[in-house]
Each structure stands twice: as structure tokens, then as C-alpha cells.
Amino acid sequence: MVNYDPLRNQKWRLGVLRHFEEVTHNVSKTCRYFGISRCAFYKWQKKYAESGEGGLLDRSRRPIHSPRATSAEVLAKIIYLRQTYHFGPWKIMVYLERYHDIHVSKSGIWRILNKLHMNRLPNNQRYKRHQERWKRYEKPMPGHRLQVDVKFLERIQDTRKRYYQYTAVDDCTRLRVLRIYENNNQRTAIQFIDYALSRLPFRTEVIQTDNGSEFQGQFHWHVLDKGINHVYIKPRRPRLNGKVERSHRTDEEEFYQMLKGVVIDSSQLFNEKLREWEDFYNYHRPHSALAGMTPYERFRERAGLQV
Hints:
By secondary structure, this protein is of the alpha/beta class. It has helices spanning 6-24, 27-34, 38-51, 72-85, 89-100, 106-115, 186-199, 217-225, 242-254, 267-283, 295-302, and strands at residues 146-152, 164-170, 176-181, 206-209, 229-232.
């Protein structure tokens, strides 16, 4: 495809006019020689007489009024969601419909991002091709399996203090319970699992964890004493805990990046902010794996309640 060059077109039109003035002195012969219409020649001649060489430049073909064009307000929302949360076209479309009652097609959002040169995500957010694709699975009912894991948070620069985010995700609904602790051991894991079970609106049958030291002996027997089965995933197979691992990535992309530069040295304050994020995730954030529903809406659907 040949790139459009307005200066090249301007020079060509100027050459046509000079050919008429210096060579043929005849409009018909000049038009036949260059293969153009007399109407085009007279139009260029008039523009040249009025504005000089600048009049031979192509004018913008953009319409003066575009009633169906996307408004500046909608563009601002699309740019904000893309820059702040790195959402793709589908998720931006769902957010606009759910929270702003704005209907823009996925392809339309992609064209807007492409025009603004925002169609490519940062390197750490791009899709990575795998040689093997793992088969997705999902338990049929809430509470059939609860995936539990720990996210190690970055140390606070001044104090070198570290916090640990304990996460429990229901395999069926993706409902989550989050809690920040200052220690990572079996006692903390027991405290968290009791807290998580008290928060979930259904009974849990199986708890699944990795083979971390915090989920050994005391934790294992504590779960069994509650009448709940406890299973470990195979060593070095984090994909078997895929839902909780993926939720940690979402935390990093959509929650912790908003806290960059903010120093929080109190676990109580940390848990308050985390609880706000947990509520947003469970009750308001559309989930692509749930066809745009929130985890709570999926729970009500599977539990036979009116959504």
C-alpha cells in the first residue's frame, strides 16, 4: 500500500499548471497530456491564484459535524480504564454498560484504542503464548472446593517490614476472602481459615492449598477437625491452584498498583483498604470468566436465588 503524501500531490499539481503556462498554453492539450479533467484543472488554477502554492494542498476530508462520533466524556472513561487498570476492549465495554449505561461495541473500543496508540499493553501485561494449554475446570456448586494461598507483599522500604495476604477463592463462584497478616505460619493460617469460613455464605467441603509450611500439620488437622477435607496440590504445580494464583495477579494489576508510593505501616489500615477492594471484587467487578457477572451474582445463580 502506497503511503499518502500531500506534498507530493501539491508538487504534481503545480507542475501541471506550469506545464500549461510554459509549454502548451492550451488547457485541453495539458489535460490530455496529464490525463485529468478540465474541471480539475480550472479548480487548481483558481486555488493557485487565490492562495498560491498552499492552495494546491489537499484539504481535510473530515466532516465538520459527526453526530455519531464518540463523545469526549466516553473517550475519557475509556482512556482512564485503559491507563489505570490495563483493561482490554471487552472488559471496558462491560464496565461502561454496567456502571455508566454507555453502550460502545468491543470493536469500536478497539478502534478508539488503536487510534490513540493505546492498543498494546505494557510488556508485563501482554498475553504470553504457552507451548501447552491447560484444560480449564470448574466445580459445579459453591463450596465444593476452596483454594487458599498466600501472597508475599513487598517489604516497606524504611522499616523492611513485610506483610502477607492470605486469600481464599471459591472454585465455583470466585467469591474471595482476603486478610493481611504480619506473620506467615501455621497459627496465622488457622486464624485465616476460621475467618474465611465465617465470612463465606455457604458450607465448604474441601480446602485446597499448596505444600507451604504454613499449611502443614497443625493447619491440616484443624481443618479435618471441622469436618472439612484438606488436599494438597502436586509440588511445583501452581496451575492446579490457578484461580487463586490468577486472583493474585488481578490484585497486583488493579489494587496494589493504586497504592504505589503510599506507605501503609499498620495491618489494621491495610485490612480496611483490602476489605474495600474485596467488596468491589465480589459485588461490583465483572468477571470475564463468568461471562461478565460478578462472583456474587454467580453465587446467587448457582444457589437458585433471584439475581
